[in-house]
Write a structure and sequence with these properties.
heterotetramer, A: five-stranded parallel β-sheet, two-stranded antiparallel sheet, 11 helices, B: seven-stranded mixed β-sheet, globular, binds thiamine diphosphate, binds magnesium ion
């Protein structure tokens, strides 16, 4: 399989299978998806209440992110995320408190101590690499992270994410080409929600699937249903194996939905019909995955209640913790410009 | 004379010029149905259609490169870069191409494009939605750079920029968009590129500024006068390249004391060139060192309130510098 | 045909045909190829003699360039060339004298009046668009030239050229994507000589043909034998028709050979075996085309002699003319920085 | 002490550091078998192999971006940009990424890369093989910029740059490569980043320069002294960011007269910052206006001999300015 065109649109390679995942792992998958959603919804409340100046959402992307995350080895592999990657960042070890501290720009925010906008997830300890706001710049970084691993003979994988609109940037092209020429252990993960702020897919590129771009670099390109975490897990696991084997990069496109406006600064009613946003939510991957796990006997109603309860506690605790945390002192402004 | 917000003056002038001249087009990310992320181009795609108001793919180098090509084939393109902070990947097209086309072709070709972009901070935009990196562009011969902060100047300079035969970087302060309201003359008001404006005349010292810091400077100057601290002249550069040497030097020769204020960091900023120009051309008239105030000398403006506030100069820090200057 | 992989490498679509070209046109084709070669060889002599500080060659690319040129309408279509495009620039109307004036940086050089390095072919009158030295920047320009034509409803085509190594630049990606999304009348012509200075194709990209990159933009990609001007003419003519019809851009890759070192500043013996350069010359497209036209009775030995004679006169005249021309006056330095 | 060309000092130091530290790699266009277009990395791929000496695809943004990523995963990458004139498409990676990584992560990450690139003109390189656009980079907090023109300084500063924890732009004057030969101390000579050097001491005026113009300035200073025109101090900045404020101000306070000379155009050049700094910090010591000499105020250096010569400052133009200064 070297291109999505080998398959009907948006259909995963082995949608029926769930791969070698234990029921315990499947429940963890769901819990991380649900925690991300819970935090995300709380962030919007804080924004509407005037406590958070800016929010940008993972809502609709959780299944794709967590499915991918389970194919990686947090602590060993590197994650180079973009601003929608709350769910996979949680899977890599970022905590609810970390997220709320950065949302409110409070002292102790491990991603930047309040310097960056929210959603710029970062932690050297967790191997989540600091990113900027200009899109696609993390793709060449991922190639470089993988280059270092390859030079040292390690089987670490660099996993980097971006949106489909960002694949129109020169850095996307240069990064995939560089990674392919050097056969580097990197996976390029595109979360295709069909919109770049207000610009629909058709005005962004003249192809049906981003994965068709893989052909230009001589690497495999896959399109998976991003609403099915197991399908995403399967596709990413294969890409990760390929990378560890030394067979080079893969471009994986997950078809997802953007439930919210682009960000709290956007109003999507200007450019997409309200009913479209509603239709998208009607097919909520989190609800579908929960129903499926219950139906398949992987998770009991009891366990669901426990999970929801745990999440409620975490979200409340994180919110309170961040609200009570102090702001960085103004004297911090000039720290960390240079190391020496 | 109508009273308009800075953003309204720009919006109305864009529409006026596109109605008057078919060669004018607007291209950029989200400039269509969204009307731009700040709504500068609100309702324009409805009036002019998507052949003249173009939602481009997310690729800044292509936006500028295609605008250059279109200008070489008879159009007068206005390219919007969504945030100044995202212009970097287009720098090759701006600095190596647009700015050098006339010179390298010995005048055979020229490149009449306008690059509009929101810049500046104080809106919780953090490191990548707050930048003031105009000095990267003002050092480039072949390029013109303007940064109007009054609605009338924005309208008048945008008109000049659209019809200028050379590439013009048109900087719009995003905090000023809806913070600055003032009168704008009707029908076809034009402000020439390269002319500064004495916003307030005075005799004891001169503040040279532009952008939102011009308003902080005005407030500081008025506050000082009220407590009898001296009469301060305030100049709005408006054009950062070419600089209005004449207006600058005239004022310096009158007051003998200069404070330069901008939001960008000091090192290598526009203020450095203005200061160097003044020592070269008006040294004998100086009664005190030319002083500069700028944003903090750090990579960019942080997000969280207290750090953002600490980054920016303000009426108080400017006032303190004025008193130091007066004391000389 | 949307990718070279539909065809064995380097074989043109209709190699047996010569398209609707008259014998007169075929002889003109040869004469332009030969003139370009004659000028190019003279430039090296002047360089070795210390009269020309810099030379960069079209030797080995002439057939591809002239074949393409005959599929275009000089005076109507735009050419956005790169530094090897001497032959197609001559076809567009640049004269031998123009070329020599720019080589020696003399007053009256129409491309830049001595300001640019040689081989930066340009003339507004001839619709040859000024270019820089940073590679691939002309590709977005070509999209823009085509955008203006489309907005005005003209059926003008923008034809732009670059080398295969330069297709690794972000501007290549962004330009092709933009042109495809807007369905612009532009043809992207890649002269693939297998080398980017010292870097062989295999270290530049992990694909067999540059034309495979077309798939990522949803446009046709073609690979043709660049040593056969008629095959190139046929492929480019089809791309030009497509563009004039309003059916958008095409990526055409011509497989050519670089006979010389990268430029007069290079010594290719450091990175490619001498015999490789010699083998390439053994298959000289100019000689093969001449033999073919004679063999097919399109051109007589007589006419060949006349052509060679005309070229000798032109090259000598141009050299002498440029040698005797004055240098620009130092006072010219500060002209044309701004228009007003 | 061995005598070496500037290019030999760089070449030998690269090899020495790559032998000493496995984390050091070199990546760029044609750096392998070709040894770089100027042969700075001659014979290195043979010794270190193509895992540590990497011929990259023709894509500057990927070269810098991948170097950044490699540095974040434990390597000390040296990225070569074949000509300074081609660095523009990597500016997003350099200015928005490398320079801001430490700051934006609150010191959690840092980016120890070196960007080596040949700059400067006088070699018939025309508009795109002659540029001196260092001021674009010196204005960026978070980035360090050095421009050694003596072989010993090149060796010593390259060593410091490789082991510095922050991104360093290392500028190599391409005309100086084979024009400048001088002594280089053996084994591990180090020159700290941020320290200028008084190349020649004097008492009547100070020339502040760097790059090839430093040598033109020295020649002009000596010529003036020979005809008894006064004793001129000449300072080689070596580091353009951070600037050695101390050495600069000390000299100004001693001589009271300053001429700044660089190959880059004056407007917004490094000289503007140095001049502004001097008026702010040493105004009371100045006996004459701080003067600047730079390349012509045009988009870039033309190709043809007479125009290239007219673009560049030289001993004569510098000498003339010195005499003007002395006359004050
Ligand atoms: C270089 C650059 N240009 C513009 C922007 C402004 N911007 C932020 S997100 C965005 C759209 C991104 O769309 P996509 O890549 O599809 O990601 P999504 O938000 O849909 O997940 C734009 C234009 C930016 N961040 N960086
Ligand atoms: C952006 C940029 N980087 C580097 C160079 C230096 N350079 C000039 S030509 C060249 C190789 C180009 O190879 P290719 O695109 O295959 O064209 P060819 O010379 O083989 O025809 C390089 C690296 C340049 N001109 N522009
Ligand atoms: Mg999207
Ligand atoms: Mg090539």
């Amino acid at each position: 399989m070297t291109s999505s065109t080998a398959r009907p649109a948006g259909v995963a390679e082995r949608p029926d299978q769930r791969g070698p995942l234990s029921n315990e792992q499947l429940r963890q998958m769901y819990e991380t998806m649900a925690l991300a959603r819970g935090l995300d919804e709380r962030m919007w409340l804080l924004n509407r209440a005037g406590q958070a100046a800016f929010v940008i959402s993972c809502q609709g992307h959780e299944a794709a992110q967590v499915g991918a995350g389970f194919a990686l080895q947090p602590g060993k592999d590197f994650l180079l995320p973009y601003y929608r990657d709350l769910a996979i960042s949680l899977h890599f070890g970022l905590t609810a408190r970390d997220v709320m501290l950065s949302l409110l720009g409070k002292q102790g925010d491990p991603t930047s101590n309040g310097r960056q906008m929210p959603a710029h997830y970062s932690s050297r300890k967790l191997k989540i690499v600091t990113g900027s706001s200009p899109v696609a710049t993390q793709l060449p970084h991922a190639a470089g992270v993988a280059l270092a691993a390859k030079i040292r003979g390690e089987d670490t994988v660099a996993f980097t994410c971006t949106g489909e609109g960002s694949t129109n940037q020169g850095d996307f092209h240069e990064a995939l080409n560089f990674a392919s020429v050097r056969q580097l252990p990197v996976v390029f993960f595109v979360e295709n929600n069909g919109w770049a702020i207000s610009v629909p897919m058709a005005k962004q590129m003249n192809i049906a699937h981003v994965s068709e771009r893989a052909a230009g670099y001589g690497i495999p390109g896959v399109t998976v249903d991003g609403s099915d975490p197991i399908a995403v897990y399967t596709a990413v696991a294969e890409a990760v194996e390929r990378a560890r084997r030394g067979d080079g990069p893969t471009l994986v496109e997950a078809l997802v939905a953007r439930f919210t406006a682009h960000s709290s600064d956007d109003d999507d009613r200007m450019y997409r019909p309200l009913n479209q946003a509603q239709e998208l939510r009607a097919n909520d991957p989190n609800l579908r995955f929960r129903a499926r796990l219950i139906e398949e006997g992987v998770m009991s109603e009891e366990q669901v209640k426990e999970i929801e309860a745990r999440i409620k506690v975490q979200v409340n605790d994180a919110t309170e913790f961040a609200e009570n945390a102090p702001y960085p002192d103004p004297s911090e402004l000039t720290l960390h410009v240079y190391g020496s | 004379m109508a009273t308009k917000l800075l953003i309204e003056a720009i919006h109305d002038t864009l529409i006026d010029e596109m109605r008057k001249d078919e060669r004018v087009i607007l291209m950029g990310e989200d400039v269509g149905a969204r009307g731009g992320v700040f709504r500068v181009s609100a309702d324009m795609i409805e009036e002019f259609g998507d052949m003249r108001v173009i939602d481009t793919p997310l690729a800044e180098s292509a936006i500028i490169g295609a605008a250059i090509g279109a200008s070489l084939n008879g159009l007068l393109p206005i390219a919007e870069i969504q945030f100044f902070d995202f212009i970097h990947s287009a720098m090759n097209q701006i600095l190596n191409e647009a700015a050098k086309i006339r010179y390298r072709s010995n005048g055979d070709f020229h490149c009449p494009i306008v690059i509009r972009t929101p810049y500046g901070g104080g809106v919780h935009g953090a490191l990548y939605h707050s930048q003031s990196i105009e000095a990267i562009f003002t050092r480039e011969p072949g390029l013109k750079v303007v940064a109007p902060i009054f609605p009338a100047d924005a309208a008048g300079l945008l008109r000049s920029a659209i019809h200028d035969g050379d590439p013009v970087l048109f900087l719009e302060h995003k905090k000023g968009y809806r913070a600055i309201r003032d009168e704008v003359p009707e029908n076809g008001h034009v402000v020439p590129i390269g002319k500064a404006r004495v916003v307030k005349s005075g005799s004891d010292a001169t503040i040279i500024s532009y952008g939102m810091m011009l308003h902080e400077s005005l407030a500081a100057a008025r506050a000082l006068e009220e407590k009898g601290g001296g009469s301060i002249e305030v100049i709005d550069l408006r054009s950062l390249r070419p600089l209005d040497t004449e207006t600058i030097l005239e004022s310096v020769m009158k007051t003998g004391k200069v404070l330069i204020v901008h939001e960008a960091n000091r090192f290598g900023g526009v203020g450095a060139e203005v200061s160097a120009l003044i020592s070269e051309e008006a040294f004998a008239w100086l009664d005190a060192p030319v002083m500069r105030i700028g944003g903090a000398e750090v990579p960019a403006m942080p997000y969280t309130k207290p750090l953002e506030a600490a980054y920016l100069p303000n009426q108080q820090t400017i006032g303190a510098a004025l008193e130091k200057l007066a004391a000389f």
